[in-house]
Amino acid sequence: MEYEAVIGLEVHVQLGTQSKIFCSCSTEFGAPPNTHTCPVCLGLPGVLPVLNRKVVEYAIKAALALNCKINPISVFARKNYFYPDLPKGYQISQYELPLAEYGYLEIETSQGKRRIGITRVHMEEDAGKNLHGEFGNPHSYVDLNRTGVPLIEIVSEPDIRTPEEARLYLQKMRTIMRYLEVSDADMEKGEMRCDANISIRPKGEEKFGVKTELKNMNSFRHVQRALEYEIKRQEKVLEEGGHIVQETLLWNPQLGVTETMRSKEEAHDYRYFPEPDLVPLEVSQEWLEEVKSTLPELPEEKKARFMDRYGLPSYDAEVLTSSREMAGFFEEAVKAHTSPKAIANWVMVELMGHLNADNKSIQESPVSPGQMAQLVALIEGGTISGKMAKDVFAKTYQTGKDPHIIVEEEGLVQLSDESELGTIVDKVLEDNPKEVEKYLSGKTKIMGFFVGQVMKATKGKANPQMVNQLLGRKLKERRP
Ligand code: ADP
Ligand code: ZN
Ligand code: MG
Q1: H/E element holding 310?
Q2: Do 330 and 247 fall into the same domain?
Q3: What is the whole-number distance in angstroms between the Cα of residue 438 and the centre of ligand 1?
Q4: 212: Cβ below 6 Å to ligand 1?
Q5: Domain for residue 293, yes or no?
Q6: CATH code, domain with 464
């Protein structure tokens, strides 16, 4: 039987405000344990939470960028459960009336564009962190610095169909959060966390199957791998006549398998109820407009503009707008030399190839946009060949020197003088009469040999197009 996967993601994004969501403690990461705490985030009796306005602004920005409707009134709720990292015994979240609903996010898959529905975006506070055996003894400790750090939870519709789509969705989510500067959304650092709900159904079937929930995946790759594994596992269960049990599973990255964490029977009853210590949150039209006016050009708009204005294919525009910095680099280079497609190629292939190999970001690029433009201009002006340009690029990357300086210093100028090249071509043909004969008798594949000889004679500097033209013409002239 052929099956189809149905996937819905619940994503938490840490918002990068200076202070926590309900108190003025710092959200700074890496401070000594329990130093960024106060009676509010420690959950001491008698204290009251005060909502951080900046958190709401960041959350609204994120929700708008995800094409959501912002609810004019939303309500905070208590989610009750017991765990050592949760001093109050409840987490302040939003439940029945979240900040925002009915959004979507678009991804570019190998099969084309796909739109994934967003059910809701709500705000909540983070819990603390339990530390096990980290201080040279077998005890567990609790660090409450993270308690009260602001989060948004973004719940998707069950619209995702493949593990690849799930990864693309998360990557696009990160891109959007970074464009908005509301979060770095780095999964490895826990700034973005993802729970994946997954079920399978026979292809063509409308009804959803029983889902499982996967946790503990802290990179894009892990999410994709865990989902791939879970699809196979569920298929095997069904093929063997069994049925899927609704449960929460933990991804084990070492073994590459999912393992039961808890079954439906052990699921929490959170006893949600409206938070009595906070009034409902009102987002006025004025406030909404004010936040809207601060939104930057978003990835989708930028991509559309890149395709329209620079005539780039969808793929190029997608890659070049994957970060604001990358897009900025490209546009600055194009400003210096108007040749968008060539610059796009050089940025995507050579520059990104070098940067990725060195684990560097575009901000750390040793090659400036101006230098990139200069290199492309040197090729297009016929000064150097594309092949030479690769070496020049590598040298600019290594030394930071301008491409035209490298060209000068190394005497790399391409030989494009027709009469000079013509003389060399004539000599090559005269020195190789047997090969000329072969060519004239129909073995035209031998052309490559002549090109090679000319290149050798010019130490690789000959303009390859011109060499081909001249050879073609001069060989024709020798035809009996
Ligand atoms: P729960 O009641 O278990 O919290 P929800 O209906 O709130 O489930 O959905 C949680 C997440 O699971 C959402 O992202 C949703 O899209 C996804 N989801 C719901 N049903 C399914 C299903 N049958 N298969 C896969 N994902 C699902
Ligand atoms: Zn505090
Ligand atoms: Mg739910």
Answers
A1: helix 299-310
A2: no
A3: 72
A4: no
A5: no
A6: 1.10.10.410
Atom number, ligand 1, closest to the C-alpha of residue 197: 26
Residue 235 resides in a domain: yes
**Tens digit of each residue's pLDDT (9 = 90 or more) over 186-219:** 999 999 999 999 999 999 999 999 999 999 999 9
Q: Nearest bound ligand to CA 26?
A: 2
114 and 225 in a common domain: yes
* Structural domains in the chain (count): 3
For the chain, give the number of residues. 480
Q: What is the pLDDT of residues 41-73, one digit of tens each?
A: 999 999 999 999 999 999 999 999 999 999 999
Please indicate, yes or no, whether residues 76 and 185 belong to a single structural domain of this protein: yes
Q: Is 10 in the pocket of ligand 1 (CB under 6 A)?
A: yes
Give residue 95 CA to ligand 2 midpoint distance, Å. Answer: 23
Statement to judge: residues 324 and 438 lie in one domain: no
Is residue 38 within 8 Å of residue 233, measured between CB atoms?
no
Decide whether any atom of ligand 1 lies within 6 Å of the 244 Cβ.
Answer: no
The residues, ordered by sequence, that sit 6+ positions from 175 with a Cβ below 8 Å of its Cβ are 299, 322, 323
Q: What was the pLDDT predicted at 353? A: 97
Please name the helix (run of DSSP H) or strand (run of DSSP E) that holds residue 196, with its range, or none: strand 192-202
Q: Check residue 230 and report its DSSP letter.
A: H
Burial, 215: exposed, middle or buried (Cβ in 10 Å; 0-12, 13-18, 19+)?
Answer: middle
Same domain membership, residue 321 and residue 273: no
* Ligand 1 and 128: CB distance under 6 A: no
